[in-house]
Amino acid sequence: MSTEDVLPAIAVIGMAGRFPGAPTIEAFWDNLRRGVESITHFPPEELEDAFGRSVQSQPGYVCARSILEGVELFDAGFFNFLPREAELTDPQQKVFLEIAWEALESAGYDPAAFPGDIAVYAGSSIDTYLLYNVLSDRKRVECFTGNYQVAEYPTLVGNGADFISTRTAYKLDLRGPAFTVQSACSTSLLTVAEACQCLLDYRADMAIAGGVSITFPQKRGYLYQEGGMVSPDGHCRSFDADAAGTVFGSGAGAVLLKRLDAALADGDPIRAVIRGSAVNNDGARKVGYTAPSSDGQAKAAALAQALAGVTADAISYIECHGTATPLGDPIEISGLTKAFRATTDRKGFCAIGTAKTNIGHLDIASGAIALIKTILALEHESLPATLHFKTPNPKLGLEDSPFFVNAELKAWPRGEKPRIAGVNAAGVGGTNVHLIVEEAPLIPAAAAAGPDEDAAHLFVLSARDDIALAQARGRLAAHIETHPEQSLGDIAFTLQTGRRAFSQRFAFSARGKRGVIEKLGGAGKSRRVPA
Q1: Do both 416 and 525 map to the same domain?
Q2: Per-residue confidence at 423, pLDDT binned at 50, 70, 90?
């Protein structure tokens, strides 16, 4: 790969997230692959919302939402939170802190040992935890009338959207720029675009980017109104003739970014390459403030392609915003078609899809999760199905466009040229973001082979207590079992150099993958090393 190819690009070297029906990246992909819809439809007796019976009994009331399990769980000690601090802090901040750590760890980096600067770009949804879980009725009135006392300042710091990035930087001791970003539904993809520019400007050496949306109460319904944003039956039918609205929910996603030349030089696990990104706003040339604009989205997509140095012919998949609203989908496809028509007249060659048919619209987090889904599809060389798609929405004009809806799990294999995808996001208020994403470069066979797999390697693990250490052993065994292509030498090296050392430790020497898995399963065969 030449220097000209490497310098302007950004490598995605780590990912983490929390998804409806899936607590990990791996579980999320498994659900996508199997075509699982993770929107929860719950009975009226489980409702936690504030709607009265008169509303809940209406025909248009829908008991459906995408929810996250376990958001109340948090290891305060691990992140050096005092008990009261952890109690007061919005779960959005705590969940993002968790996935930021996991993204770093997935790339093999302990931030305490990294010599460079790590930036944080993040955004979160409106804080409902403060209102429903922290404030009493009296304090809620004081908060909104400006009479809140200085003594309650920790409550405000723990719940202000301003603090999600700086709290992450503080708790993980990250020294690069820390910015909170907000642009409604396009927020988390905007964090990625801004983080890429930060790296290209050499203002940091790595960057964590993403977003989180967790609103309370989670088990709440909504009232459907014809022509509105929400679905009449709790299903998201993007691009379909029956598409009538979206379903909102909770989720979180983060990626760890690094300049591609540096990632290649450092031997990082490159998961995908961001070749170009573009951001703009619609301005006033549309029907209303909350409406999207095909011209705005077209300009963002076309500029991203130009900055990436690719023509539309090279793009084989677009992960769309795809909200399934009567207004949104036709405008988005119109905009993307305009962008593609600037460089190609071909029809029906580029697949489109959206994770929203699986998990609903995750608001602030949706863009980062769309990027994660696209990267997973590149890695697994397959495109997940767009659920509930039967007949194209005639307003999309797909028959004369470059696009077709990917309605079933489809192979997406590597070829002679790198596979390239686009990721599109549009926020209420008009901020459009478009990313051009390319598959990870192939590592030469000699380098990928690593040390002799029959050689003995030293494996080290550590955790804060015995339970966590046992869990770490189980996760490592499962990882080796499900990733036979990975070198044991590389795994051993990462465990020794890319993990923080905690008080409870476990070390052993083994040969071959089966030998490693056996040692991980038998505590009596190995020796715990005291701190």
Answers
A1: no
A2: very high
Give whole-number Cα distances, 508 to 456, 505, 527, in Å.
Answer: 10, 10, 7
Q: Which residue has the tokens 């795994």?
A: 491
- What does the DSSP assignment read for 52-86? -HHHHTSTTEE-EEB--TTTT---TTTTT--HHHH
Q: Based on the domain organization, do 514 and 423 belong to the same domain?
A: no
Q: Is there a domain that residue 468 lies in? A: no
Bridge partner residues of 252 (DSSP): 18, 212
Q: In angstroms, rounded to a whole number, what is the distance separating the alpha carbons of residues 203 and 180?
A: 16
Strand partners, 435: 277, 423
Is the per-residue pLDDT at 530 higher than 50?
no
Beta strands in 427-475 (DSSP E): 431-439, 456-463
> Pick the residue with more confidence: 388 or 162?
388
> Residue 453 has what pLDDT?
65
Are residues 480 and 414 located together in one domain of the fold?
no
Return contacts of 522-531, CB within 8 angstroms, 24+ apart.
528/504, 529/460, 529/505, 530/505, 531/501, 531/502, 531/503, 531/504, 531/505
Q: Are residues 370 and 484 in the same domain?
A: no
Copy the structure tokens of residue 345.
């007249």
Instruction: Check if the beta carbon of residue 245 is closer than 8 Å to that of residue 230.
Output: yes
List, in order, residues 6 or more apart from 50 with CB less than 8 Å away.
220
Model pTM score:
0.92
Q: Could you tell me the CATH number of the domain that includes residue 403?
A: 3.40.47.10
| Share of residues in the chain with pLDDT > 70 (%) | 91
- The reply to whether 64 and 93 lie within a common domain is yes
Q: Which residues are catalytic?
A: 185, 321, 361
Neighbours of 62 (CB within 10 A): 20
Contact yes or no for 359/387 (Cβ under 8 A): no
Give me the pLDDT at residue 451, please. Answer: 52
CA 414/CA 117 separation, integer angstroms: 34
Provide the number of structural domains found in the chain: 2
Q: Are 424 and 443 in contact (CB under 8 A)?
A: no
Phi/psi for 236 (5° steps) reads -105, 110
Give the range of the structural domain holding residue 121, as residue numbers without chain letter: 3-439
Partnered with residue 256 across adjacent β-strands are: 14, 208
143 located within any domain: yes
Q: Is the peptide bond before 269 cis (omega within 30 degrees of 0)?
A: no
